[in-house]
Amino acid sequence: MFTLYGYGHTILAGAVLTLEVCFASLAAAVLLGMLGALAKLSPQPFLSLPAKLYTTVVRGIPDLVLMLIVFYGGQMAVNSIAEKVGYEGYIDINPFIAGVLTIGFIFGAYMTETFRGAILAVNPGQMEAGRAYGMTGLQIFSRILLPQMMRHALPGFGNNWLVLTKTTALVSIIGLNDMVQRAALASGATHKPFVLYGAVAINYLLLTSASIILLKYLEKRYSAGFSREL
Amino acid sequence: MDFSIIQESWPIYLDGLITTVWLTVAALVIGLLLAVPLAVIRVHGGALAQAPIRAFVYFFRGTPLLIQMFLIYYGLGQFEWMQQSVLWSLFSEAWFCALLAFTLNTCAYTVEIIRGAIVATSHGEIEAARACGMSRMLMLRRIILPSAFRRALPAYSNEIIFMLHGTALASTVTIVDITGAARIIQSRYYSPWEAFLTAALLYMCLTFTIVFFVRRLEKHWQGHLLPERVTDFE
Fold it and tell me: Residue B84's pLDDT is what?
């Protein structure tokens, strides 16, 4: 049972890949979310309008459809460009990159909303004071805005992370051999799909449970010095 | 891009649209009907009654919907007794397994949403109901649940959209919903952009229709909580 009919180590290797997808997509999502939030709050319409369009469009389309667009559509686009440049071979899009880009793109939109709210929660007088001291924009961001918005961003960030980890199961559909796909292959060979998918489900439960504990700790840490909100 | 393909194959998309809509509606309605009593037990029930609901919610909120669907669709076939039971004619159908997974999933999230709304009921309302001599059931029916549903609406509208998007996973177990239709078109004509962009457009229309109606419902139900409209006296 514990060795999962000899497939335990394969599933474990898949779990490592799933974790890699999680963290790589999170990095992309945080970067996009920060840029998106700053763009959405910008007084320049040529920055705020595309950011608004981005968050609206992403919330209207299922993640699976977006992933299929990036994977198949991206494949086609890359190859037609390569053909025009004179490249003769066929380029395969790496499902890891397609998956990470799509998940990062989707959760970048959710992070945009989270970060936007968190930035708005910081007292504008703080930024003004920074400017009065002659800080540059980057200094104001890293020394004043970022440390203070963390506290407000954490609950939303945590929710997004929990949804993101579960979304990574979709990369198996575009052919990445994460733990879901490995479980599918193993259950084809052993005819024990319930046990194998069950093991994958338990792995996801462990990941989400560990995340919840860590997030609670971080929330406590970053709200040090503030009264508990009920 | 050549959208004449879509013009020719719109009946597949129409079928897909119908499948997506009924899967979403059926899962949401059954899930909500199950979630209300479960949420009430989760708040007011004894520890023994709460434990299985806690476990159910923990499992379905902590694992991906895709895995839940695979566990039901592929997983249950592993058991000899399952294949011999009378229920097998249902469990061997992809639509039933997908619907079951979606229903249980949305039910688990909805239990948490309603639970949160019930817990947030202001204490004064309950005291007033008690002072009027209402029984527990009457209080639940007339005071707690109506106000909890109002508070739950914004979170529940998100859940509606999550479920709509979640049904796209049905295409991985041979069901032809909107995403399934797009996958058929993409493999038939090798035209991913047209196929999936059409699907994306259909989902966006559905999403924004839902958002529009939920906004109206919110205005109707939560009018008393909105900031007062300023009228000019000239």
Answer: 87
ipTM above 0.85, yes or no: yes
**Average pLDDT estimate for A5-23:** 89
The dihedral through the CA atoms of A120, A121, A125, A130 has a sign that is: negative
- Reported as a single tens digit per residue, the pLDDT across B85-106 is 888 888 889 999 999 999 999 9
Q: Where is pLDDT greater, at A148 or B114? A: B114
Is A167's CB within 8 Å of B197's CB?
no
Give the CATH number of domain B8-219.
Answer: 1.10.3720.10
Contact: A64, B183; criterion CB under 8 Å: no
Dihedral (Cα; B50, B55, B57, B61), 10-degree rounding = 160
Sorted by where each begins, the domain ranges of chain A are 8-222
Specify the CATH number of the domain A8-222. Answer: 1.10.3720.10
Q: Do A191 and B76 touch (CB under 8 A)?
A: no
Smallest CA-to-CA distance from A71 within A32, A105, A111 is with A105
| Site of tokens 């059954």 | B30
Chain B: give the shortest CA distance to residue A38, in Å: 24
How would residue B13 be classed by pLDDT, with cut points 50, 70 and 90? very high
Crossing angle for the helix pair A8-41 and A146-167, to the nearest 10 degrees: 140
State the DSSP code for B169.
G
Separation CA B14–CA B185 (nearest Å): 13
- Nearest CB among B172, B199, B203 relative to A173 is that of B172
The per-residue pLDDT for A1 is: 46
Q: What is the pLDDT of residue B218?
A: 86
**Residue for token pair 């109901």:** B129
